[in-house]
């Protein structure tokens, strides 16, 4: 069964159509890039799937269920912006995740953070931006979820942190789960992707496996993205 199914999914904010009829499935064992320029509808789709928004029309299901309280136990969501209280110590963040998510492996998360030299007794505000992103990502990926939603996970961090984020996604990837990475930084994430979906102005412009793009079009995903979205 598909981890995620959507058909003719639409979302309107007043007169603005953020999604105009999006249809695709996500299968287990695949890492998919939801790619598009700013304003293409990526974050709206992620929030709908995470159960933070409700679609205007169309079908959206996670493991056969409409997004809601039950699916939140199956979805691990990394929002684009920092969502941790700055006053909270790292160890308190781990405790919070353990109390809130039954599938969160606190010991594993703590071991990973300590291995990176992240002080568990320091508040979030005392950490660098890159270190904060490491804490957020490790907490997200140390859940045993069915669907991981990562909204711009490599945006605004240094190259070393980007590499760490991508390694962490691969190392913690459950082959029975699916990962959806929303980003416009194609070159940075392409090496971990199995499939891509190009989203443009609320519509799916292209859906393909990365291998098919390289074999049939003779280029990488970043090059194709630049051609498709050339100004």
Structure characteristics:
single chain, 231 residues, alpha/beta, Rossmann fold, six-stranded mixed beta sheet, three-stranded antiparallel beta sheet
Name the CATH superfamily assignment: P-loop containing nucleotide triphosphate hydrolases
Output the structural class. Answer: alpha/beta
Sheet of most strands:
6 strands, mixed
Q: What number of domains?
A: 1
Mean pLDDT, all residues: 91
Unreliable residue stretches: none
| Order of neighbouring strands in the sheet with most strands | 5-6-7-3-8-9
Work out the number of β strands: 9
- Give the terminus-to-terminus CA distance: 39 Å
| Fraction in beta strands | 25-35%
What is the H-and-E element order? EEEHEHEHHHEHEHEEHH
Rg result: 18 Å
């Amino acid at each position: 069964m598909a981890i995620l199914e959507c058909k003719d999914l639409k979302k309107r904010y007043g007169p603005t159509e953020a999604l105009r009829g999006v249809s695709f499935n996500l299968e287990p064992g695949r890492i998919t890039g939801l790619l598009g320029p700013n304003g293409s509808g990526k974050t709206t789709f992620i929030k709908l799937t995470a159960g933070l928004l409700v679609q205007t029309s169309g079908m959206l299901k996670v493991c056969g269920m409409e997004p809601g309280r039950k699916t939140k136990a199956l979805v691990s969501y990394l929002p684009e912006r920092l969502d941790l209280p700055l006053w909270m110590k790292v160890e308190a963040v781990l405790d919070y995740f353990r109390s809130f998510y039954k599938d969160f492996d606190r010991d594993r998360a703590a071991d990973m953070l300590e291995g990176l030299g992240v002080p568990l007794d320091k508040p979030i505000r005392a950490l660098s931006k890159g270190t904060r992103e490491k804490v957020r990502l490790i907490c997200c990926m140390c859940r045993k979820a069915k669907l991981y939603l990562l909204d711009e996970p490599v945006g605004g961090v240094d190259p070393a942190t980007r590499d760490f984020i991508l390694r962490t996604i691969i190392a913690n990837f459950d082959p029975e789960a699916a990962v959806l990475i929303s980003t416009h930084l194609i070159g940075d994430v392409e090496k971990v992707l199995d499939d891509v979906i190009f989203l443009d102005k609320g519509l799916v412009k292209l859906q393909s496996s990365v291998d098919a793009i390289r074999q049939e079009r003779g280029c990488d995903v970043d090059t194709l993205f630049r051609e498709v979205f050339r100004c």
